[in-house]
Write a structure and sequence with these properties.
Rossmann fold; about 15% strand; alpha/beta; seven-stranded parallel beta sheet
Amino acid sequence: MSGQRLIITCGGTGGHFYPGLALARRHMACGHPVLMLLSGVNSESQRSIAQSFGIPVEVLPLMPSPGHNPVRACCFLNGLIRGYRQTRLEITRFRPDAVLGMGSFASLPVVLAAHASGIPIFLHDGNARIGRANRFLSRFARFLGTAFPPVNADRVRCRCNCVGMPLRPELVAAEHLERAEAIARLNHRYGCRLTPEIPVLLVFSGSQGAAAINAVIPEALRKLAPGSLQVIHLTGTNTFDEVQSSYQGIDTPLLLLPSCDAMELPYSAADLVISRSGGSTVAELQLFGKGAVLIPYPYAAEQHQWDNARVMVQGDAALALANNDCDAPRIARILQDFLDHPALWQNRGKQAFSLAHPDASDRMLAEIFAVR
């Protein structure tokens, strides 16, 4: 392809949007035009985020996932038709050389409009198990890149390969941030008193928090020797007060936050991570070389978080624990094992780093704009 004008379409959750945003920022940084087409209930807030980086954005009509409910089916069809028409107009105006879909059925009107216009189509999937939408859309695509080695590549109808997960440039730039420096920055930023001398446990479970994780960590810490661990716990926006109360009386240096907009700092400071196993989380653990205890979200579509966790487990970089098995005695035993065998867990961190693809954005863009 001689030109490098790219449309990126994202829909639904941040798991689709943020990798698409990372690719858009990288493409623009290389001097190439990009347009993001967004669809979903979070589109307006995502538009603001993308525009803050100077990225042009258009929001498509809301199109819920198709289902057996007739009302949802009608809404899906209405959104599909309106999104298709709007995308045809955007293609005429922007004149893209390629279209990239980041997953979910919200990409369908854009992919169909690109196909009808003769625009080459590419896809990216942020999980080890390629989702239903991308499996369907692959019949229109030239290439599908995955964040991890795919477990169901045989279900894809185009060329498919692992390119890695596109991550925010700020995270990639901080992959070698020294632990002591990260702790110092956290202390300065949040007024806490973490110290490089004591191991740091990082706990988080997404923007809404997870009761199964938030509830057991303080209880598990009560079973350990006082002060043996420091904790950075990102509780989620709705559960901060409840989790804060759970830590009362625990003699542990603690940084408790609803969320953190500079995740490179807690990642770099941590010696062990307990988290869910969404695609971006697993890719970030790999980038920062962190051994982890992964507790897959039990209601994820097709149990794809278990497939992500297995990437780390099979690489000897993590332990995986079912949500129902996440209780305080079991977590306490794992934490004590971490304290008793630091070299084992340090090696798990090294194994995690060996799985990383910090150049994922470049690899995906190279697939899109390779000379054919």
